[in-house]
Amino acid sequence: MRVAVFGTKGYDRRFLSEANAAHAHELIFLEPRLDLSTAPLAAGCAAVCVFVNDCVDAQVLEALAGSGVRLVALRCAGFNNVDLAAAERLGIDVVRVPAYSPHAVAEFTIGLMLAVDRHIPRAWSRVRDNNFALDGLIGRNLHGRMVGVIGTGKIGALVARSLRAGFGCDVLASDVVTDPELERIGVRYVPRATLLEQAEIVTLHCPLTPVTRHLIDAAAIARAREGLLIVNTSRGALIDTAALIDGLKSRKIGGVALDVYEQEADLFFEDLSNEIVGDDVFQRLLTFPNVLVTGHQAFLTEEALTAIAETTLASISEAEAGRELANRVGTERVAG
Ligand code: NAD
C-alpha cells in the first residue's frame, strides 16, 4: 500500500524502513506534520501514518477522503487528535498501536519522579560549573511516601507495581476499573478526589478524554497536600497549566515533572533553539527551579520504536488484505 508518513523524523524512517522489509509497502516519508495545508501531500496514497501532534480533525479527514485515503495509521497509543466520528462518517478506518512498550514510558516516569524529587538536573548543572554545594538539593525518600497513580492500565500498572513492590511506597490508585493483581500487592483503589487529597506524589496515566481533561485544575490543587509533586507522562491537557503555575507560585505544589504539555504541538519534536518561543505559559514553567520538562520522549526506546513500526505496518497490511483490523479505534472508544 502507498502510505504518506507525516512528521517523519530520522528514527521513524529508520525503524519503519527496517520493519517494512517484511511488508514491502511504499512508504512516502514526509517531514511536515499533517494539517489542512499539508493534507494534499497524501494525494495518491491509500493510507496516512501519523503521530501524536498531527491534526486529524474533520476538515483534514475530508481532504484526505477526497484524495482517496482510506486508512489513518497512528504510530502511537493515544488517539485524542483524531475526530473518530468524522472518520467513521467518511469511511476511513483508524488504527493505533495500543501497546508497544509500556515499560519504556513507565521507566521514564520513575526516572522523572526521582530526578525532580532529588534535584538531579540541578545537581548535574552545578557540578559542571564546579559548584559542589548541596544547599537547596534536599530530597525525600520515595520509600514510605504516599503516591497516587491515576489510570492503572498498561503503563500505570507498571508504575504502581514498581513504586509499591520496588520502592516500598504506599500506593493509592484511581481508575474506572480495578486491577486485582495490584490490589494483591497492596495498591489501594480510592476515589480520585481522595487520591488527590491524600497523595504526596501524583502520577498521571489515564487517557485524555472529555472526562479527564484538566483533571488537575485549580480546585484539585487547592485540595491537595502541601508540597504535592506531580508527574505527567500521559497527555498535557490532563493538567490546567495556568492552575499549575499558580500552584507553583503559591508553593502549594512542591515539584513538577512533565513529558507532555497542553500546547506541545507548537513546540515539541522540533529544534527551536534558534527561535524566539512565543508561548509565555511554557516559558514561565521553565523558570521554576522545581520543574523538569522533557519533550515527549518517554516512549523513545529501541524496543518501543521497533514495536511501533512492526504493529503499524502489520495494521496497514491487514487493511490492504481486507482483513479485520485488530488495532482499529472506533467511536465507542471516545467515552470514558
Ligand atoms: P491504557 O489504555 O492501557 O490505560 C489507561 C487506563 O486509564 C485504563 O486502565 C483506563 O481504564 C484508565 N482510565 C480511563 N478513564 C479514566 C478516568 N476517567 N480516570 C482514571 N482512569 C481512567 O493506556 P496506557 O498504554 O497505559 O497509556 C496511558 C497513557 O499514556 C495514554 O493514554 C497516552 O496518552 C500516554 N502515553 C504517553 C507516552 C509518552 O511518550 N509520553 C507514550 C505512550 C502513551
Give the topology, please.
Elements (H helix, E strand, L loop, with lengths): L1 E4 L4 H10 L6 E4 L17 E4 L7 H9 L4 E4 L9 H7 L2 E3 L6 H16 L2 H9 L17 E5 L3 H13 L3 E5 L5 H5 L3 E2 L2 H7 L2 E4 L13 H6 L4 E5 L8 H9 L3 E6 L21 H7 L4 E3 L8 H20 L15
Parallel strand pairs: 1-2, 1-3, 3-4, 4-5, 6-7, 6-9, 7-8, 9-10, 10-11, 11-12
Helix pairs in contact: 1-12, 2-3, 4-6
As a percent range, the share of helical residues equals 25-40%
Shape: globular
Oligomer: single chain
CATH topology of the largest domain: Rossmann fold
Spatial separation of the terminal alpha carbons: 34 Å
Strand order of the largest sheet: 8-7-6-9-10-11-12
Looking at the overall shape, the CATH architecture of the largest domain is: 3-Layer(aba) Sandwich
| CATH structural class of the largest domain | Alpha Beta
Instruction: Characterize the main sheet.
Output: 7 strands, parallel
Count of helical regions? 12
Number of domains: 2
The run of helices and strands is EHEEHEHEHHEHEHEHEHEHEHEH
Bound molecules: nicotinamide-adenine-dinucleotide
Topology, number of strands: 12
Q: From the helix content, strand content and strand pairing, which structural class follows?
A: alpha/beta
Low-confidence stretches: none
CATH superfamily of the largest domain: NAD(P)-binding Rossmann-like Domain
Gyration radius, in Å: 21 Å
Average pLDDT reading: 96
Sheet-strand content, in percent, reads 5-15%
